[in-house]
Amino acid sequence: MTLKLFEVGGADDAFRPSPYCWRTRMALAHKGLAFEPVPWRAVEKDRIARSGGGIVPVLVDGDFWLNESWDIAVHLETAYPDRPSLFDGDGDRAKARFLDAWITGTVHGLIFRAVVRDQVPLLAEKDQAYYRERTLRKFGLSLDDIGADPDTAVEELDRVLAPLQSVLDEVPYLGGSRPTYGDYIVFGAFQWARVASRRKLYADDSPVARWFARLLAAFDGFAAAQPGRDHWE
Q1: pLDDT tens-digit profile of 144-186?
Q2: Which residue stretches of 32-107 are H helix?
Q3: What 3-state DSSP class applies to 192?
Q4: SS3 at position 216
Q5: Which residues, other chains included, contact 170 with Cβ-Cβ below 8 Å and sequence gap of 6+?
Q6: Long-range CB contacts for residues 137-140, cutoff 8 Å, separation at least 24
Q7: Residue 140 backbone zone (phi > 0: left; psi -120 to 50: alpha; other: beta)
Q8: Full set of structural domains in the chain with CATH
Q9: Is the pTM here over 0.85, yes or no?
Q10: How far apart are CA 39 and CA 33, in angstroms?
Q11: How far is CA 53 from CA 50, 124, 167, 191, in A?
Protein backbone atom coordinates (compact mmCIF):
# COMPACT_ATOMS: atom_id res chain seq x y z
CA MET A 1 0.00 0.00 0.00
CA THR A 2 1.36 3.42 -1.01
CA LEU A 3 1.62 6.05 1.68
CA LYS A 4 0.34 9.51 0.81
CA LEU A 5 1.70 12.73 2.23
CA PHE A 6 -0.32 15.93 1.95
CA GLU A 7 2.11 18.84 2.17
CA VAL A 8 2.22 22.55 1.45
CA GLY A 9 2.70 23.38 -2.20
CA GLY A 10 3.11 26.78 -3.82
CA ALA A 11 2.16 28.44 -7.07
CA ASP A 12 4.30 25.64 -8.48
CA ASP A 13 3.14 22.22 -7.28
CA ALA A 14 6.75 21.15 -6.76
CA PHE A 15 7.53 23.98 -4.32
CA ARG A 16 7.84 22.47 -0.82
CA PRO A 17 8.64 25.09 1.86
CA SER A 18 7.01 23.70 5.02
CA PRO A 19 9.48 22.90 7.83
CA TYR A 20 6.98 20.51 9.40
CA CYS A 21 6.48 18.63 6.15
CA TRP A 22 10.25 18.34 5.77
CA ARG A 23 10.44 16.69 9.18
CA THR A 24 8.05 14.04 7.90
CA ARG A 25 9.74 13.74 4.51
CA MET A 26 13.07 13.04 6.18
CA ALA A 27 11.49 10.58 8.61
CA LEU A 28 10.00 8.65 5.69
CA ALA A 29 13.36 8.66 3.89
CA HIS A 30 15.07 7.48 7.09
CA LYS A 31 12.62 4.59 7.31
CA GLY A 32 13.09 3.81 3.61
CA LEU A 33 9.36 4.22 2.97
CA ALA A 34 8.15 5.33 -0.45
CA PHE A 35 5.28 7.80 -0.49
CA GLU A 36 3.12 9.76 -2.89
CA PRO A 37 3.54 13.52 -2.36
CA VAL A 38 0.25 15.41 -2.62
CA PRO A 39 0.50 19.21 -2.94
CA TRP A 40 -2.02 21.06 -0.80
CA ARG A 41 -3.01 24.69 -0.25
CA ALA A 42 -3.98 26.22 3.09
CA VAL A 43 -7.49 27.05 1.88
CA GLU A 44 -8.20 23.41 0.97
CA LYS A 45 -9.24 22.26 4.45
CA ASP A 46 -11.86 19.88 3.06
CA ARG A 47 -9.21 17.73 1.38
CA ILE A 48 -7.68 16.75 4.73
CA ALA A 49 -10.80 16.86 6.90
CA ARG A 50 -10.59 13.14 7.54
CA SER A 51 -7.40 13.76 9.55
CA GLY A 52 -9.40 15.68 12.14
CA GLY A 53 -7.43 18.88 11.58
CA GLY A 54 -6.78 21.62 9.09
CA ILE A 55 -2.99 21.62 8.82
CA VAL A 56 -0.32 19.56 7.09
CA PRO A 57 1.64 17.37 6.99
CA VAL A 58 -1.08 14.76 6.80
CA LEU A 59 0.07 11.20 6.31
CA VAL A 60 -2.37 8.65 4.94
CA ASP A 61 -1.34 5.11 5.83
CA GLY A 62 -4.20 2.78 5.04
CA ASP A 63 -7.04 3.76 7.35
CA PHE A 64 -4.81 6.08 9.38
CA TRP A 65 -4.94 9.82 8.70
CA LEU A 66 -2.41 11.66 10.89
CA ASN A 67 -1.97 15.42 10.90
CA GLU A 68 0.86 16.33 13.30
CA SER A 69 4.52 15.81 12.40
CA TRP A 70 5.32 14.41 15.85
CA ASP A 71 2.36 12.01 15.77
CA ILE A 72 3.41 10.90 12.30
CA ALA A 73 6.94 10.13 13.51
CA VAL A 74 5.60 8.10 16.44
CA HIS A 75 3.24 6.23 14.10
CA LEU A 76 6.07 5.39 11.70
CA GLU A 77 8.17 4.11 14.57
CA THR A 78 5.33 1.92 15.83
CA ALA A 79 3.96 0.73 12.51
CA TYR A 80 7.34 -0.03 10.90
CA PRO A 81 9.57 -1.40 13.69
CA ASP A 82 11.60 -3.45 11.21
CA ARG A 83 12.83 -0.25 9.52
CA PRO A 84 15.66 1.95 10.86
CA SER A 85 14.62 3.58 14.11
CA LEU A 86 13.91 7.30 14.29
CA PHE A 87 14.84 7.39 17.98
CA ASP A 88 17.88 5.99 19.74
CA GLY A 89 16.05 5.06 22.94
CA ASP A 90 13.85 6.99 25.35
CA GLY A 91 16.50 9.61 26.02
CA ASP A 92 16.76 10.46 22.34
CA ARG A 93 12.98 10.68 22.08
CA ALA A 94 12.90 13.12 25.01
CA LYS A 95 15.64 15.18 23.35
CA ALA A 96 13.61 15.29 20.15
CA ARG A 97 10.62 16.61 22.10
CA PHE A 98 12.81 19.38 23.50
CA LEU A 99 14.09 20.23 20.03
CA ASP A 100 10.51 20.29 18.75
CA ALA A 101 9.54 22.86 21.41
CA TRP A 102 12.69 24.95 20.92
CA ILE A 103 12.60 25.03 17.13
CA THR A 104 8.86 25.70 16.95
CA GLY A 105 8.77 28.25 19.76
CA THR A 106 11.99 30.15 19.12
CA VAL A 107 13.76 29.41 15.85
CA HIS A 108 10.78 29.33 13.48
CA GLY A 109 9.68 32.83 14.46
CA LEU A 110 13.07 34.30 13.63
CA ILE A 111 13.31 32.43 10.33
CA PHE A 112 9.79 33.56 9.48
CA ARG A 113 10.83 37.19 9.98
CA ALA A 114 13.92 36.60 7.85
CA VAL A 115 12.31 34.88 4.85
CA VAL A 116 8.60 35.72 4.74
CA ARG A 117 8.89 38.53 2.20
CA ASP A 118 10.79 36.19 -0.13
CA GLN A 119 8.38 33.31 0.37
CA VAL A 120 4.97 34.91 -0.05
CA PRO A 121 5.28 35.59 -3.81
CA LEU A 122 6.00 31.87 -4.35
CA LEU A 123 2.74 30.74 -2.73
CA ALA A 124 -0.44 30.03 -4.65
CA GLU A 125 -2.42 33.24 -5.09
CA LYS A 126 -5.34 31.99 -2.99
CA ASP A 127 -2.94 31.12 -0.16
CA GLN A 128 -1.27 34.53 -0.29
CA ALA A 129 -4.57 36.19 0.50
CA TYR A 130 -5.34 33.62 3.20
CA TYR A 131 -2.01 34.05 5.00
CA ARG A 132 -2.12 37.83 4.80
CA GLU A 133 -5.57 37.92 6.39
CA ARG A 134 -4.75 35.28 9.02
CA THR A 135 -1.50 36.96 10.04
CA LEU A 136 -3.15 40.35 10.42
CA ARG A 137 -5.93 38.83 12.51
CA LYS A 138 -3.59 36.74 14.69
CA PHE A 139 -0.73 39.20 15.27
CA GLY A 140 -2.21 42.60 14.42
CA LEU A 141 0.64 43.00 11.93
CA SER A 142 0.88 42.51 8.19
CA LEU A 143 3.29 40.05 6.63
CA ASP A 144 5.22 43.03 5.28
CA ASP A 145 5.50 44.46 8.79
CA ILE A 146 6.75 41.16 10.21
CA GLY A 147 9.34 40.79 7.47
CA ALA A 148 10.39 44.45 7.44
CA ASP A 149 13.79 43.91 9.09
CA PRO A 150 15.18 40.51 8.04
CA ASP A 151 18.78 41.48 8.88
CA THR A 152 17.94 42.00 12.54
CA ALA A 153 16.10 38.66 12.58
CA VAL A 154 19.22 36.93 11.23
CA GLU A 155 21.38 38.62 13.87
CA GLU A 156 19.04 37.42 16.61
CA LEU A 157 19.01 33.95 15.09
CA ASP A 158 22.80 33.83 15.15
CA ARG A 159 22.75 34.34 18.91
CA VAL A 160 19.99 31.77 19.42
CA LEU A 161 21.88 29.16 17.39
CA ALA A 162 25.09 29.45 19.41
CA PRO A 163 24.41 26.29 21.52
CA LEU A 164 23.53 24.33 18.39
CA GLN A 165 26.73 25.45 16.70
CA SER A 166 28.71 24.37 19.76
CA VAL A 167 27.19 20.89 19.86
CA LEU A 168 27.58 20.29 16.12
CA ASP A 169 31.22 21.31 16.37
CA GLU A 170 31.75 18.17 18.45
CA VAL A 171 29.46 15.58 16.85
CA PRO A 172 28.31 15.05 13.25
CA TYR A 173 24.62 14.81 14.15
CA LEU A 174 22.35 15.65 17.05
CA GLY A 175 21.74 11.90 17.21
CA GLY A 176 25.48 11.38 17.67
CA SER A 177 27.14 9.28 15.01
CA ARG A 178 23.95 9.08 12.91
CA PRO A 179 20.93 11.32 12.40
CA THR A 180 17.76 10.66 14.38
CA TYR A 181 14.41 12.41 14.38
CA GLY A 182 15.70 15.37 16.39
CA ASP A 183 18.04 16.16 13.50
CA TYR A 184 15.10 16.21 11.11
CA ILE A 185 13.15 18.59 13.33
CA VAL A 186 16.00 21.08 13.16
CA PHE A 187 16.76 20.34 9.51
CA GLY A 188 13.20 21.24 8.48
CA ALA A 189 13.67 24.81 9.65
CA PHE A 190 16.81 25.38 7.58
CA GLN A 191 15.43 23.55 4.55
CA TRP A 192 12.45 25.91 4.67
CA ALA A 193 14.82 28.87 4.49
CA ARG A 194 16.88 27.29 1.70
CA VAL A 195 13.81 26.62 -0.45
CA ALA A 196 12.01 29.92 0.18
CA SER A 197 14.79 32.51 0.37
CA ARG A 198 18.34 33.41 -0.66
CA ARG A 199 19.03 34.95 2.73
CA LYS A 200 22.01 33.40 4.54
CA LEU A 201 21.24 32.32 8.09
CA TYR A 202 24.74 31.13 9.07
CA ALA A 203 28.31 31.16 7.81
CA ASP A 204 29.25 28.69 5.10
CA ASP A 205 32.07 27.24 7.21
CA SER A 206 30.03 26.90 10.42
CA PRO A 207 29.23 23.58 12.14
CA VAL A 208 25.53 24.04 11.30
CA ALA A 209 26.40 24.52 7.63
CA ARG A 210 28.45 21.32 7.56
CA TRP A 211 25.70 19.38 9.38
CA PHE A 212 23.07 20.73 6.99
CA ALA A 213 25.15 19.72 3.98
CA ARG A 214 25.43 16.17 5.33
CA LEU A 215 21.66 15.91 5.67
CA LEU A 216 21.06 17.41 2.24
CA ALA A 217 23.24 14.62 0.83
CA ALA A 218 21.63 11.88 2.94
CA PHE A 219 19.42 9.22 1.39
CA ASP A 220 21.00 9.69 -2.04
CA GLY A 221 20.45 13.44 -2.01
CA PHE A 222 16.74 13.22 -1.26
CA ALA A 223 16.49 16.70 0.29
CA ALA A 224 19.04 18.27 -2.07
CA ALA A 225 16.77 17.32 -4.98
CA GLN A 226 14.32 19.99 -3.82
CA PRO A 227 15.45 23.11 -5.69
CA GLY A 228 16.56 26.17 -3.76
CA ARG A 229 15.13 29.67 -4.04
CA ASP A 230 16.75 30.54 -7.40
CA HIS A 231 14.77 27.82 -9.17
CA TRP A 232 11.36 29.35 -8.48
CA GLU A 233 11.80 32.62 -10.33
Answers
A1: 999 999 999 999 999 999 999 999 999 999 999 999 999 999 9
A2: 69-79, 90-102
A3: helix
A4: helix
A5: none
A6: none
A7: left
A8: 3-79 (3.40.30.10), 90-220 (1.20.1050.10)
A9: yes
A10: 18
A11: 8, 21, 36, 24
